[in-house]
Design a protein that fits this description.
Elements: H1 9-23, E1 36-41, H2 52-70, E2 74-76, H3 86-95, H4 99-116, H5 132-147, E3 151-161, E4 166-168, E5 173-174, E6 177-178, E7 186-195, H6 201-204, H7 214-224, E8 226-238, E9 241-249, E10 260-263, H8 270-273, H9 279-289, H10 294-298, E11 307-314, E12 321-326, E13 338-341, H11 347-356, E14 364-365, E15 386-387, H12 398-412, E16 415-421, E17 426-427, E18 429-430, E19 440-443, E20 447-450, H13 478-481, E21 482-484, E22 491-494, E23 498-499, H14 501-504, H15 508-511, H16 524-530, E24 535-538, H17 545-559, E25 572-574, E26 577-579, H18 596-603, H19 605-614, E27 621-623, H20 626-652, H21 662-680, H22 684-702, H23 710-723, H24 728-737, H25 754-757, E28 761-768, E29 771-779, H26 784-792, H27 795-801, E30 808-812, E31 816-820
Parallel strand pairs: 1-2, 1-24, 10-12, 24-25, 26-27, 28-31
Antiparallel strand pairs: 3-4, 3-7, 5-6, 7-17, 8-9, 8-11, 8-16, 10-13, 11-12, 14-15, 18-23, 19-20, 19-22, 21-22, 28-29, 30-31
Helix pairs in contact: 1-24, 3-4, 18-19, 19-20, 20-22, 20-23, 21-22, 21-23, 22-23, 23-24
Bound molecules: ligand ANZ.
């Protein structure tokens, strides 16, 4: 038995954290007979400090993991570090510190903080993506993709400073100019590595196996951007030559409305078709459009620009000749890089035609409208409708129009049904040092040669000069650069670009489950045992890149025979954002940052955890303020005192009988039911609200003699068990104070008896012909007959019925009885 003490988190929290680690109670066994539960949180970037957003995210996943463990699952909740990336390299340039040292120091500090929050991490599975025992396998995976034809090298646009003669990372481009010399940056094609994610575009649109937020699914769907339509080939005469230029259109039904044709400025045929008179203007325009980003070019705000090439092209369906322009609203990277201009029905084309005085002809008439005069329109008519002004197609109804024109094109061999995706292949190479090396060797004789698997890992050298060249610093490390060709043994050079860090994070959840394997990336048995991930919690900002890349990885690896499931993350949940006390995003410059280390020092981790989860619904976040933490802190103190009182009362003179404990028992079952449901729905704020009410109810009982019953003691224990996922330290301490020797966190979740969750007595409203006449107190489990008989004894009911028997009785159990006279 304990002597009365004050709640001092600083003492108890550290003690239990050490004990949990010593006993390894959160280290999931691969051989447990219990069903597995893979509880995953997006791994942090080692910035050096666990901020309040991390705490929020991790408290939620941890409370969920603890709940599931107590419910009988074999829970693994691993953690690691996504440790490659730009900030380490920038720190190296700025503070002259080796990126590896910077990163590992930060990791050491963050590990301490991760311990301090008292979360049940499965530490033996930790991964650090910048260490060779991890990135060896990232390189190995690159080779698997390469061998499967899913990794390839091609020219792709990069930011290029024409003055420094070098590529620049996006971060080095400031307002469209080189951050070093101020020269406007242009886009230039350089050799880059890409992954063929587009091969999986269709399968990635299948979300049927996923329990994900609808918003995230929609974002992925839009990102992949599947459009159905047709590819139709227009024909130009260049001198005596016939040049066919295909367009992709989602509206073949508007083909008779084409009044001009537009090529992207980068389109390879621009040079050939441009007439000598237009050449100077066309070249000037191309030069100018190179300086713009894709976003600028696509902006609907921007006034349309373009130049006539001097050439004409024939519409293969109508036979009409139209002028060919170049304009930057047409992108080379989408469709075929060419557009048939239909100003009457496409808004961008409409604006373009208005600007350059090109004709506008209506060819589709929406239902319920008369054909109009486009000269009077203020915008394009984009709705579907009956085809008009369209020769033999006139009168074709909207349901058939697209099909009819597509079929016509197919029959004549001038076009075909086509599907287009917005999704582009994934550019994975970076002209950077701090990333996993790309295991490729260039040999003057044998060309591109993959590094043999037995030579992995290609180690990242430590001694590197961080000249700000925009090229990978590895290019200047001759011991790294120069090697021998694995095929001919002659001199060769290594690829000096490194891999995008999104590649490291596309498979970490696989490696966790076999983190120490030095023979293979993972063993199939372990993956079969643990994957897919059952719950994945992380920020909504990862909706498209990380979450899409990881899905692609799993599908591609499945097709290589390395995995046997389709989706990495069965259930996805996005936590909300914690805002500063002023309701603004926390930032150092605003001075509204709440540092977890400081508040933990004052109130303890449990109060901070409870406070964060109490702030609002977990998927919505909320505004943080110190008073809120104090509220939870006071609550924990109440629990502390309540339990001590209970131990004293029960220890001094227990009452054996159960009669007076009956009400306490009902209260307990009611709250177990309610709080359990809240945890199931990850509604931690209402779970805690329920626990506070439960605590208040027990505090009232404390004033009565029921405080000495076994029922009361059981209720207090239930309170601790229910609170354990949110406040793991205080509950552990109080659990032991009751004399238990095993951790509270490996106990079974309390169960409830449905019958006992109902109130013993309920109030039933009595109506006569729908009018309220009386109220009755009846036993909660009273039958209809009982209630009816009781109702008929009421004087008021008798009077209302005028002594007659009711003709009909409607009973809503526990609520209402209506007697129809
Ligand atoms: C003629 C037309 C008429 C179009 C009409 C639309 C409406 P989504 O739905 O996004 O796939 N387009 C095709 N390639 C383009 C490119 N490289 N750059 C810019 N725009 C391009 O869009 C497909 C439509 O976008 C295509 O259908 C084409 O314009 C344009 F009443 O063709 B449409």
């Amino acid at each position: 038995m304990m002597t009365r003490t004050k709640y001092t988190p600083a003492e108890i929290e550290k003690k239990w954290q050490e004990q949990w680690e010593a006993e390894g109670i959160y280290y999931a066994s691969d051989n447990s007979p219990k069903p597995k539960y893979y509880n995953l949180v997006m791994l942090p970037y080692p910035s050096g400090d666990l901020h309040i957003g991390h705490w929020y995210n991790y408290t939620g996943i941890d409370a969920h993991g603890r709940f599931m463990r107590m419910r009988g699952w074999n829970v693994s909740q691993p953690i690691g570090f996504d440790a490659f990336g730009l900030p380490a390299e920038n720190a190296a340039i700025k503070h002259n510190i080796q990126p590896r040292i910077w990163t590992l120091d930060n990791i050491a500090r963050m590990r301490q903080q991760l311990h301090r929050m008292g979360a049940g991490w499965d530490w033996p599975r930790e991964i650090v993506s910048c260490l060779p025992d991890y990135y060896k396998w990232t390189e190995w995976l690159f080779l698997q993709f390469y061998q499967a034809g899913l990794a390839y090298r091609t020219k792709a646009p990069a930011n290029w400073c024409p003055n420094c003669n070098t590529t620049l990372a996006n971060e080095q481009v400031v307002n469209g100019a080189c951050e070093r010399c101020g020269t406007p940056v242009i886009r230039k094609e350089i050799d880059q590595w890409l992954f063929r994610i587009t091969n999986y575009a269709d399968e990635l649109l299948d979300f049927s196996e996923l329990n994900w937020p609808e918003k995230t699914v929609t974002m992925q769907r839009n990102w992949i951007g599947r459009s159905e339509g047709a590819e139709i080939r227009f024909v130009a005469e260049v001198g005596s030559e016939r040049v066919e230029i295909p367009v992709f259109t989602t509206r073949p039904d508007t083909i008779f409305g084409v009044t001009f044709f537009v090529l992207a400025p980068e389109h390879p045929l621009v040079e050939r078709i441009t007439t000598p008179e237009q050449r100077a203007a066309v070249e000037a325009y191309i030069d100018q459009s190179r300086r713009e980003t894709e976003i600028e070019r696509l902006s609907t705000e921007k006034e349309k620009t373009g130049v006539f090439t001097g050439a004409y092209i024939t519409n293969p369906v109508s036979g009409e000749q139209v002028p060919v322009w170049i304009a930057d609203y047409v992108l080379m990277g989408y469709g075929t890089g060419a557009v048939m201009g239909v100003p009457a029905h496409d808004q961008r084309d409409f604006e373009f035609a208005r600007k350059f005085g090109l004709p506008i002809r209506q060819v589709v008439c929406p239902a319920g409208e008369e054909p109009g005069d486009p000269a009077t329109w203020s915008e394009a008519k984009s709705r579907y409708g009956v085809m008009i002004n369209s020769g033999q197609f006139d009168g074709t109804p909207p349901e058939e129009a697209i099909k009819a024109v597509t079929r016509y094109c197919e029959e004549r061999g001038i076009g075909k049904y086509a599907v287009n995706y917005r999704l582009r292949d994934w550019l994975v190479s970076r002209q950077r040092y701090w990333g996993a090396p790309i295991p490729i060797i260039y040999c003057p004789k044998d060309g591109m040669v993959p590094v043999p698997e037995e030579d992995l890992p290609v180690l990242l050298p430590d001694e590197v000069q961080f000249k700000p060249t925009g090229e990978s610093p590895l290019r200047y490390v001759s011991e790294f650069l120069n090697t021998t060709c694995p095929t001919c043994g002659g001199p060769a050079t290594r690829e000096t670009d490194t891999l995008d860090t999104f590649l490291c994070s596309s498979w970490y959840f696989l490696r966790y489950m076999d983190a120490k394997n030095d023979q293979e990336a993972w063993s199939k048995e372990k993956i079969a045992k643990w994957l897919p991930v059952d719950m994945y919690i992380g920020g909504a900002e990862h909706a498209v890149m990380h979450l899409l890349y990881a899905r692609f990885f799993v599908k591609a690896l499945r097709d290589m025979g390395l995995l046997n499931f389709n989706e990495p993350f069965k259930r996805l949940y996005h936590q909300g954002t914690v805002l500063g006390p002023d309701g603004q995003k926390m930032s150092k410059s605003r001075g509204n940052v709440i540092a977890p280390d400081d508040v933990v020092g004052t109130y303890g981790a449990d109060a901070v955890r409870g406070y964060l989860m109490f702030m609002g619904p977990f998927d919505q976040g909320g505004t943080s303020n110190i008073q809120g933490i104090e509220g939870v802190w006071r609550y924990l103190n109440r629990v502390w005192n309540l339990v001590q009182d209970s131990i004293e009362a029960f220890g001094s003179a227990p009452i054996p009988g159960t009669e007076i404990g009956r009400e306490v028992e009902r209260t307990m079952h009611k709250f177990i039911k309610r709080v359990t449901a809240e945890y199931e729905g990850l509604r931690f704020n209402t779970a805690l609200a329920g626990l506070m009410e439960f605590t208040n109810a027990l505090m009232k009982v404390r004033e009565t003699e029921a405080v000495r019953t076994a029922e009361y003691r059981r209720a207090i224990e239930a309170l601790l068990l229910l609170l354990a996922p949110l406040a793991p330290h205080i509950t552990e301490e109080l659990w032991h104070a009751f004399g238990h020797t095993e951790s509270i966190h490996i106990q079974s979740w309390p169960t409830y008896d449905e019958a006992l969750t109902r109130d013993a007595v309920v109030t039933v409203v009595v109506q006569i012909n729908g009018k309220l006449r009386d109220k009755l107190e009846v036993a909660a489990d009273a039958s209809e007959d009982d209630v009816r008989a009781l109702a008929l004894t009421s004087e008021r009911v008798k009077a209302a019925l005028g002594g007659k028997e009711p003709k009909k009785v409607v009973y809503v159990p526990g609520k209402l009885i209506n007697l129809v006279g």
